Fold:
Amino acid sequence: MATGRHQVTYDEGDQYDGEWNKDGQRHGWGSLAFADGTKYVGKFDMGLFSGGLLSFADGSRYEGDFAAGKYHGYGIYTRADGMKFEGQFSDGKANGFGLMTFVDGTHGTPRNEGQFEGSAIINRCPAKDAVRRAQQAAHMIRTQISAQSQ
Structure:
């Protein structure tokens, strides 16, 4: 496939609309809608997600940084019920500093803020910098999505 912007519908029903590199990989800005209702909008690097919004058919979503196609860096994961984690991710999981917010808007008692490994908090401590950086990453993605759709 030639470089530039192209639309492709795959045999399984997934659809990609975006930029391609000379090696025939999704690379640059694009959107990938999966047949199961999952959708990714954002940047691709050598065929893999590298920063964007991944929304699932059940209503859950992740906004933020990716590396090698997985949540990695700073971002916000919001479950379908509204519970969310804002902070650091590694290898597709919450891993590092962050803040858990429950459906009712509270953070729990004691406060679920600190260092996480997956869904477990291993050290309660302030994580304001990680939360701020996660919010900035998510805001940047939303701004880029808005600019690309105009």
Q: What stands out?
A: The CA atoms of residues 101 and 107 lie 5 Å apart.
